[in-house]
C-alpha cells in the first residue's frame, strides 16, 4: 500500500472559511485595522480573564512578550488566521503560567519536590530525539512529559485520574484539527496527546522559547532569545515538573529540546545532576528537513511566504546551537554528556539505550527491554507517510552545508548521509 508524501509546498491553507477570514482581514488592514490585537495589554488581559486570576506569578514574561509581539507585528507579515493563532498560543501560555503560580501558592510543599538525575536530550531537531525520548520513557522508573501535560498541566493529574483525564481527549481533538488543516505536518513530526513532548512547552509560560519562533518569522525576537537570561524560563520549567511529579511520583524525568544547547550553564544550574544526551546527525539533512518543517508550520499563518528567508533564519539557529554546545564542551570536563550518533540510534535503538544505561553503571530492566521491543515492533507496522525535502528549495546544496558544519562533523564523527 502506498503512503502519502508531503513537502512544505503542500502545507497550504485550503479551508474556505479561513481563506475568507483572511480576505476580510486584508480589507480591514487596508484601512488601518489589524485584528485581533497583538498588543501586550490585550494578551495579558485575555489570559487573566480566562484564568480568573490577576496574579501572573511575577513579571519576567513582560520583556519577552513585548519583544515577541513587536517582531510579530513588524516582521512576520501575519494573515488574520495567523494573528488569531498566535494570540491563542500566547494567551494559553500565560493562562498556564497563572494557573501554575496559583496552584503552587495553594500547595507550597510542591517546591520541595526534587527533580533527580533527569535524562535531558538536547540534539537539534530531526536527530532522533523523539525516538530516544520515547524509548527512555518506556522505563517504568522514568517518565516523559506528555503533549497534553505540556499543553495544560494544572491541576496536575493524579495517579487515580490520569488515565481518564478529559484534557487528553481535548488535546487530541486540537491536534486532529491542526492536522486536518495541515496534513503535511503528520509526516514531518510526531503528534499525539499521549506521546513525549518537547519540554520547550514549559518554557512557553515565560515566552522565552524556540517554540514561539516556529509559528512566525520573528528574527528580532530570535536574536534577543539567543542572548537573554533563561533563568526565568527554567524556573517555570522546574515548577511545572515539580507540580506534575507531586501528584504522580516519578523516579526520573525524560526531557528534550534543542533550546537547552545554548543555555547549558542555566540547565545545570537548575538540574546539576542532569544526565545529558546530545544526539548528532548530518547537519545537511537536519537543517534541510528543519527548514521544510518550519516553513510548513508558518506557511498557513502568512500570505507572504518566503521559504528561503525562513530557511536561512533557522540555518543560523542551528549553527548557533551547535557552536554554543561545542563551546560548552570545550569548557567542561569530559563526560558531562553522552554523544549519540543518529546512525547508531537508527540501526540499533535498543542497543544504544543499553549503552547509555551502562555509562551510568545501570542495566536496562527486563520489563523496560520488553516494552522497547514491543514499541519498535508496533512502530514498524505504521506507515504514516514520507517527508520530502530538497536543499535546492532554499537555494542550498548539501556540499555547501557540509562545508559550513565540517568542524562539528569531524569533532563528533558525524557521517554524511
Describe the structure.
- This protein is α/β, with parallel strands linked by helices and 417 residues long.
- 55% of the residues lie in helices and 6% in strands.
- It has one domain: P-loop containing nucleotide triphosphate hydrolases (Rossmann fold, 3-Layer(aba) Sandwich).
- The strands form two sheets. It has a five-stranded parallel beta sheet with strand order 3-4-2-5-6. A two-stranded parallel ribbon has the order 1-7.
- Helix 2 (40-51) packs across helix 4 and helix 4 crosses helix 12.
- It is globular.
Keywords:
55% helix; alpha/beta; two-stranded parallel ribbon; Rossmann fold; 417 residues; 7 strands; globular; 20 helices
Short account of what is shown:
With 417 residues, this protein is an alpha/beta fold.
H-E order? EHHHHEHEHHHHHHHEHEHHEHHHEHH
CATH class: Alpha Beta
Query: How would you sum up the major sheet?
Result: 5 strands, parallel
Count of helical regions: 20
CATH topology: Rossmann fold
What is the percent of helical residues?
55-70%
What is the CATH H-level superfamily? P-loop containing nucleotide triphosphate hydrolases
Would you identify the regions where 5 or more consecutive residues have pLDDT less than 50?
none
For the secondary structure, the number of strands is 7
* Mean pLDDT level: 92
Report the structural category.
Answer: alpha/beta
Query: Mind telling me the C-alpha Rg?
Result: 21 Å
Order the strands across the largest sheet as they lie in space: 3-4-2-5-6
Bulk shape: globular
**CATH architecture heading:** 3-Layer(aba) Sandwich
Number of domain units: 1
Amino acid at each position: 500500500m502506498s503512503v502519502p508524501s508531503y513537502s512544505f509546498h503542500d502545507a497550504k491553507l485550503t479551508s474556505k472559511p479561513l481563506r475568507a477570514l483572511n480576505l476580510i482581514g486584508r480589507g480591514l488592514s487596508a484601512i488601518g485595522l489589524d485584528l485581533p490585537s497583538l498588543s501586550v495589554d490585550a494578551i495579558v488581559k485575555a489570559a487573566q480573564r480566562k484564568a480568573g486570576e490577576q496574579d501572573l506569578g511575577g513579571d519576567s514574561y513582560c520583556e519577552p512578550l513585548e519583544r515577541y509581539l513587536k517582531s510579530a507585528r513588524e516582521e512576520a507579515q501575519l494573515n488574520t488566521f495567523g494573528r488569531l493563532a498566535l494570540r491563542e498560543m500566547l494567551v494559553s501560555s500565560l493562562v498556564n503560567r497563572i494557573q501554575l503560580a496559583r496552584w503552587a501558592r495553594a500547595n507550597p510543599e510542591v517546591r520541595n519536590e526534587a527533580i533527580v538525575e533527569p535524562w535531558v536530550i538536547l540534539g537539534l531537531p530531526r536527530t532522533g530525539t523523539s525516538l530516544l525520548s520515547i524509548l527512555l520513557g518506556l522505563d517504568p522508573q522514568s517518565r516523559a512529559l506528555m503533549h497534553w501535560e505540556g499543553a495544560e498541566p494544572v491541576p496536575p493529574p493524579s495517579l487515580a485520574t490520569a488515565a481518564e483525564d478529559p484534557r487528553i481527549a481535548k488535546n487530541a481533538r486540537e491536534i486532529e484539527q491542526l492536522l486536518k488543516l495541515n496534513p503535511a505536518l503528520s509526516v514531518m513530526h510526531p503528534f499525539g496527546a499521549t506521546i513525549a513532548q518537547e519540554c520547550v512547552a514549559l518554557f512557553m509560560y515565560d515566552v522565552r522559547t524556540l517554540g514561539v519562533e516556529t509559528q512566525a518569522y520573528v528574527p528580532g525576537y530570535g536574536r534577543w532569545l539567543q542572548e537573554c537570561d533563561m533563568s526565568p524560563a527554567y524556573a517555570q520549567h522546574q515548577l511545572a515538573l515539580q507540580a506534575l511529579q507531586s501528584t504522580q511520583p516519578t523516579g526520573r524525568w525524560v526531557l528534550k529540546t534543542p533550546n537547552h544547547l545554548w543555555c547549558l550553564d542555566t540547565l545545570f544550574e537548575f538540574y546539576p545532576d542532569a544526565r545529558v544526551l546530545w544526539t548528532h546527525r548530518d547537519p545537511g539533512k537536519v537543517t534541510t528537513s528543519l527548514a521544510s518543517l518550519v516553513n510548513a508550520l508558518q506557511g498557513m499563518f502568512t500570505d507572504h511566504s518566503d521559504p528561503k528567508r525562513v530557511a536561512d533564519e533557522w540555518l543560523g539557529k542551528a549553527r548557533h546551537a551547535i557552536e554554543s554546545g561545542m563551546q560548552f564542551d570545550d569548557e567542561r570536563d569530559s563526560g558531562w554528556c553522552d554523544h549519540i550518533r543518529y546512525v547508531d540510534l537508527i540501526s540499533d535503538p535498543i542497543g544504544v539505550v543499553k549503552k547509555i544505561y551502562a555509562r551510568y553503571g545501570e542495566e536496562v530492566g527486563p520489563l523496560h527491554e520488553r516494552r522497547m521491543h514491543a514499541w519498535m515492533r508496533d512502530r514498524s507496522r505504521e506507515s504514516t507517510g514520507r517527508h520530502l525535502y530538497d536543499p535546492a528549495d532554499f537555494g542550498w546544496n548539501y556540499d555547501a552545508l557540509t562545508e559550513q558544519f565540517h568542524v562539528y562533523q569531524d569533532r563528533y564523527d558525524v557521517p554524511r548521509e
